[in-house]
Every structure is written in C-alpha cells, then in structure tokens.
Design the sequence.
C-alpha cells in the first residue's frame, strides 16, 4: 500500500512537471525601431512577462540610435546571426516581434535565415510595403523634399542607408527596381537565386500578425504596415490587389489561405504609441505568443 501511494505521488510529480513544460511560453525576440534601442522595448517586455510569467524575452541591442540607419542587409545579417544563436538554445521555437523599421528588418531575417524556427511573427506598424512620406523623411533628412528624395536614394550611395533600401517612390518605380538592393528582393519583385528560399522563410511561419492604423502619421501610406501601397496616382492599392500578393511571390497568399495571416487595423495610435499602448500589447500581441 505504502509503495502504491509513493508511486502515485511520483506519478503526480511527473505529471506536474510534464504539464509545466507544456504551458511554458516560447521565448520572444523583440527588434526595436529606427533610432530606437533595446531599452525602448522594455515596457513591452515587462508586460509580456506580467501576462505570460517566466517568458524569456530578448531585446535586440544592435544598431541602436543613428546606427539604425546602416544598410538593411548588413543589419539583417548581424541581427539574424544573434537570433540564430538564440534559436539554438530554444529548439522548440521562438516568437519574433519587430516594431517600425524593426519589423522589416525582422522580415529580412525570416527570409534570409529561412531555416529559422519562428512560430509567430508580429509586425508592429512596419513599412512592409515601403515608405514614401515627408514626415518620416524629415526625421532623418530635414531639408530633403519627398518628391526629390529618389535622386539621393536611388543611387549606389543612397543605398548605403536603411531608409534608401525601402524608399518606394511610386513615381519612379523603374529606378526603384534598378537601384534598390533590398525591398524588391525581399518581395521577390526581382527574381533572384534566393527567391524560393526567401519565400520558404515566410510560408513556414505558424502565424503572421500585421498591426497598423490610419493615425500613424509616420508610416506613409499607413497601409504599408499591411502590405498595401501607393500606385502611380498615390492611390492606395490594398494588399490583396498587389501583384506580389496575387502571385504569392513571397508567401503572403499561402499564409492567408491557410488562416495564418492576421491583420489588425487600429485607430487612435500615432507611430510612437504602438509599442507602449497596453491595449495593443494585451489584446493584439500577447494572445499570439503561446
Ligand atoms: C509576381 O509579381 C511581381 C510583381 O510584384 C513580379 O515582379 C514577379 O515577377 C511575379 N512573379 C511571378 C513568379 O510571377
Ligand atoms: C544563380 O544560380 C545559377 C545556377 O546555380 C548560377 O549559374 C548563377 O551564377 C547564380 N547567380 C548569382 C547572381 O549568384
Ligand atoms: C491614374 O489616373 C489617371 C487619370 O485619372 C488614369 O488614367 C490612370 O489609369 C491612373 N493610373 C493608375 C495607375 O491608376
Ligand atoms: C485574405 O485576407 C483578406 C483581407 O485580410 C481577406 O479579405 C481575404 O478573404 C483573405 N483570403 C484570401 C484567400 O485572400
Ligand atoms: C490604445 O490602442 C487602442 C486600440 O487601437 C485605442 O483604442 C486607444 O485609444 C489607445 N490608447 C492610447 C492611450 O493611445
Ligand atoms: C540578398 C541575398 O541573399 N543575396 C544572395 C543571393 O544569392 C547569391 C548567390 O546565389 C548571393 O551571392 C547573394 O549574396
């Protein structure tokens, strides 16, 4: 009888530890925005831990401040190498959150390091479709006119800035495709040896969550956060009407068709609000970090 009780207790201990492993939340990596640093994402990290106790959260601390303007591929390779090391510690998978430029950087990591083990990718008001707007431009280049920025960005020199890498001038698409070394490749708008790898990095995600909204004021058009973008008349073409969506060039259609693409349009947030607004963290981000 004593032995039976002991075995029963051992069994419950075994069961409890098995359950503990089951409910453990996957680690989360957060990529900060342009001009930001790891610490700017600390509130989000703290809140994730309040709601999902014991979650290991890694804040990317590379390319902080002005160095966030370094070329996108350079940042993708360095940050990606860090994230690969984190993944090696967590073979059951991780979640990835990118805010603003950090969301585009994170997409670059997912596509380039297509053997990643990311389950949920959250893109928080990121210029996924590119950027063409005065307010954003003037944060870095106060005297440059939006209409003329292409002359700087669509050049070999201009491509040495992150902003140039995703500057998407709807009136100069020929130059965009000719000079931009980043966004058209990431979108597989230009076919390359890497195209099918890039796509597989997206289609293996369990979930992609896109968050953005009309009061952003910095991401222009704001629909870029949802893969929508300007046509030649500066009319916004929604994601589902974009050629790269319709021909599934990098996997968005595949994600959507299988119910793995979640899009949230939220009003009342300017660009600097997204990562500190607790409603957004609680209701639109944390539920996907299981
Ligand atoms: C998909 O559409 C893009 C336009 O965004 C085009 O550049 C690309 O060549 C197309 N790819 C395929 C495989 O049709
Ligand atoms: C792409 O791959 C093909 C075949 O493997 C190779 O011949 C070609 O040189 C590659 N192109 C580039 C730009 O690496
Ligand atoms: C832009 O507007 C003009 C005139 O309204 C129209 O003819 C043209 O087809 C439009 N172009 C696009 C890309 O929608
Ligand atoms: C994809 O997403 C859009 C908008 O989020 C939705 O309207 C559409 O029905 C979805 N499904 C497919 C197969 O495109
Ligand atoms: C936070 O976001 C929610 C959802 O968009 C919005 O309704 C609310 O006004 C925002 N709150 C603050 C303080 O910005
Ligand atoms: C951006 C990128 O990944 N470029 C690589 C694509 O593949 C070729 C080789 O096929 C590499 O040389 C590029 O660096």
Sequence:
């Amino acid at each position: 009888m004593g032995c039976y009780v002991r075995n029963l207790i051992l069994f419950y201990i075994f069961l409890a530890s098995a359950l503990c492993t089951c409910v453990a939340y996957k680690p989360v990596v957060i990529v900060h925005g342009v001009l930001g640093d790891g610490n700017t994402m600390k509130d989000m990290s703290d809140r994730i831990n309040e709601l999902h106790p014991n979650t290991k959260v890694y804040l990317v601390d590379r390319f902080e401040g002005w160095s966030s303007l370094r070329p996108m591929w350079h940042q993708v390779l360095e940050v990606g190498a860090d994230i690969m090391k984190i993944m090696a510690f967590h073979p059951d998978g991780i979640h990835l959150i990118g805010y603003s430029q950090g969301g585009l950087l994170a997409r670059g990591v997912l596509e380039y390091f297509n053997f990643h083990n990311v389950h949920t990718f959250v893109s928080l008001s990121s210029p996924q479709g590119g950027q063409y707007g005065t307010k954003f431009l003037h944060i870095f280049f106060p005297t440059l006119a939006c209409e003329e920025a292409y002359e700087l960005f669509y050049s070999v020199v201009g491509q040495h800035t992150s902003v140039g890498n995703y500057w998407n001038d709807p009136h100069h698409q020929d130059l965009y495709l000719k000079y931009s070394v980043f966004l058209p490749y990431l979108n597989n708008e230009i076919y390359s040896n890497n195209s099918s790898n890039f796509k597989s990095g997206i289609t293996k995600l369990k979930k992609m969550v896109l968050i953005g909204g009309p009061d952003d004021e910095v991401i222009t058009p704001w629909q870029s956060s949802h893969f929508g973008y300007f046509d030649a008349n500066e009319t916004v073409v929604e994601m589902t009407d974009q050629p790269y969506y319709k021909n599934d060039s990098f996997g968005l259609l595949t994600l959507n068709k299988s119910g793995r693409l979640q899009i949230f349009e939220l009003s009342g947030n300017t660009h600097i609000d997204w990562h500190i607004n607790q409603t957004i963290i609680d209701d639109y981000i944390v539920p996907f970090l299981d």
Summary: The pocket of 2-acetamido-2-deoxy-beta-D-glucopyranose (ligand 4) is lined by residues 240, 256-257, 263 (CB under 6 Å). The radius of gyration is 21 Å. Residues 126 and 168 are 14 Å apart (CA to CA).
